[in-house]
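Progress report, Aim 2. The chain analyzed during this reporting quarter is listed below.
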Amino acid sequence: MKMKRFTLLVMMPALLAMTGCQARKKSTGTPLSATNMVSSETGVSHVHEYYRFSIKGLGPQWRLLEDKQRESMLPDAAAMVSKVGGSHGAVIVETYEGSDLKAYTEMICANMEAMSVGYHAGEIREVDFNGGKAMRRSIEASFNEVLFNYEVMTFLHQGMGYQVLAWRPKEAAAAQDLEEFIASVGIEEGAVKVPPPAPAPDSIGIGSRIRGGSFESAVSGLVAKPAEGWGLMWGLSLSTTGDDAETGIQRPDKGLFITVSHQPVDESEREKFLGSLDEGFSDNTESVGKVTWDFGGEPIEFSGVIVSGPPAIRLYMGHAVRGDRGYRVKAWHIEQEGKDLAAALSEGLGSFSFLDEKSHGELRTSLLAEEVAYGSVGEHHSVRNGVFRSFADGITWKRPAGFWQIDAGDNARLRNEASSLYAIEVESGISVQLLVEDAGGITSEEFHGAVVDLMVAGGFSVSEKRLEPLTVDGHKLLRTCLLLEGPDAHIEYHAGSVVVGDKAYQLNCFGPVSKMESKEDLVIEAVDGFSFPGKKLRPLEKRGGLHRDVRMGFEFRLPSGMTAKVSKQDVLAKLGSTVEFSGKSSMMSHIAIQAGGSGQDATIASNMVNELFKLNMDRADSAGSTEKADTIGGLPATVRSGTSDGNHMKIAVFRQGGVLHMGVFAAPTERQVDSLFSDYKSSFTLIP
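Predicted structure tokens for the chain:
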């Protein structure tokens, strides 16, 4: 019997789309797609019950994503589709009672620009849509080091703003897919209604968690349990709001948003922090006075302004201090003529409270013990289990204990365009930054002097505090202490630099002056976490029959009698890796893909294993298959088995450190498949 070649499912980055009246922080997301995927039997025909838009006429290679899958990938989308080959489409709807469609379109595109690297947009053009007016724009931009083409169409309908978004990796799919999706969207008869907010799924964050629809923070002690009509903002929905908001809530039917961010504030900075309230506003604002609202059980004063548009936005900002932590509370909505929404915002603020001391301590202990699931993968770097590796620059960094948010690749460059790594311990506010450039024959002393001079020219002042050099992985790191006076914080900056081989490295550490002094051991430990393996740091190693993928964190020995081939797909190479093995009549593959690790991976993994099975068994569903729990590399795994036309298959899915692993096994007989799977399990090892 000739064994058919099986097809591998590939995860692609999501379009980091957003609702229009929010501002961008950063994001990262990874929805499901495929280089080849099971076609639906009828294509897509969908009418949204509440927003009265439709998606019709898409062929059988398109599929409508289920609610749980869509919400775990792009929570702001009302509907989302994907197509064989990697194309995607989504419709996002929000309350918007403005009338300037071009201004609305420009706001959407400006938010996309702030999220991306290498953004390039064509002209905004007016088009006919369902007998009315819409705006279109073509955009090219990079997210998570993958270049995408986008088509964006916006229109206004019954007091709502609609965003129709189509995207594809530039290397992957046909351009006509984007036009096909845009053309499939229409408006149906009937009154538009805003549905109630979807509950946020349980997940573990960096020093926080969502459980049972409530947000709890071990860092700030904050609890957000949405009042009636309000919903938690999470994932992309929250990350697009700006200012590193820790949590937020929204009321879609009224277009209201409230977010809370926080920072360390010691006693000497308390009054300065509280007095800096109005300094957070830009120049193009008009004051609408002050109001006192309750936040977390205490009254605080909010300053209100109208941010000039179009569209004009009414924004309220309040500051509060609790213990050694300062809280920034923002509440806003697009200005709506003749409507006073202050009472609704005040009601929403009642969603916030604080943990008592005992509960706070118990949550902190619990979350510190959680696996470090967050990570990222780029073509030349990885972050896994709190360890950053830059294969291009020959440097690694291991985070100290604490709640560390680690940004690398494009996400680091969004914070500082020259950064390779940007990490912040969210409890103390202490940050670590890595910048790398070619040394060009310069000495460490010359390089350090140039770094300090550049910072002084940028507004820093050299402190009287003297910092002795540190020995980091056998190399002398020169250090200078600088100070920066901000509007509501005093920053101490330790500029560190060293030349190793042909690379000049800046290993910088900075944070609030009070924390840099009181957490001196953490500062030293953070810098000491760097090492310089140089060319010894290789993403992939092969020795005899051993296949070792350092970038993705696994190794195993080749099955007897099989040859290996590593996937060279341009898009996949930036997100993960695939190694395929082929024998006379059997095939095996291991796929490793970065998936974030927020606790929502189980949803993604379940969909992945289901789609893989249907794809390779030529089925529209998973009927007749079996699923059981197993253990691979010491981790719990889900394994699905089945048979179709004499072909036997197993698919195993498990997760470690933000990486989804999938083993795929196919052969003419069940015995051969079981043997392949047994060999795989016995040799598969995870790399820390």
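The longest helix spans residues 601-616. The radius of gyration is 26 Å. These observations will guide the mutagenesis work planned for the next reporting period.
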